[in-house]
Amino acid sequence: AGNVGTATRTVNVVDTTAPVVTLTGAATVTVELGDTYTELGATASDASGTVTVVTTGTVDTDTVGSYTVTYTSTDASGNAGTATRTVNVVDTTAPVFTSSATFSAVENQTSIGTVTATDLQAITFTISGNELEITSGGVLTFATAPDYETKTSYTATVTATDASSNSSTQDITVNVTNDEDDDDTGTGTGTGTGTGTGTGTGT
Questions:
Q1: Which residue in 142, 137, 136, 128 sits closest to 176, CA to CA?
Q2: How far apart are alpha carbons 164 and 161 in whole angstroms?
Q3: Count of CB atoms within 10 A of residue 20's CB?
Q4: Helix (H, G, I), strand (E, B), or coil: what is residue 181?
Q5: How far apart are CA 107 and CA 147, in angstroms?
Q6: What is the per-residue pLDDT across 2-56, written as a single tens digit (0 to 9) for each?
Q7: Please, what's the b/e burial string for 135-160 (b: 16 or more CB within 10 A of its CB; e: otherwise)?
Q8: Which are the contacts of 192, defined by CB distance < 8 A and separation ≥ 6?
């Protein structure tokens, strides 16, 4: 009879799947303080075709800390996939002494000199024993003014420690020199009186 009946179905092909972002290299990277950080990047794949990766986040290799770098890829349907990398900037390098291991000081004075060291972080100084003292900034002094006639040489160990607890040591010697103005020698004149007895013969 030629009668035709119809029905329709709508099929929506959609994309709700985010791109898969894959890191190039390790997910956690360690960089020494002061060194250069090299970005390894990431790649992405998606069923919709070629997608690109955008990298965000910065790494300050002059400051110890943990940094996060994020990699994001967005497809044509607005689905976004991400991956992250942790970059740890660490300091494992001990301070290096730049001052001499030998100092000299005149007796009867407490000041000696300054101990110095280099490091990318702040340094704190300490010293062994109780005859010599040092400030956290490295200023070296006698605990008690030295006496050349009693002792002419003092030794101690100085420790330099940075903010990351890396430390190095230096054995120092302080030689005491004579204070010539304190000598007991000298010249002068004087008078005196006295009495005496004696015998003698004569012609």
A1: 142
A2: 8
A3: 14
A4: helix
A5: 5
A6: 999 999 999 999 999 999 999 999 999 999 999 999 999 999 999 988 899 999 9
A7: eeebebbbeeebeeeeeeebebebeb
A8: none
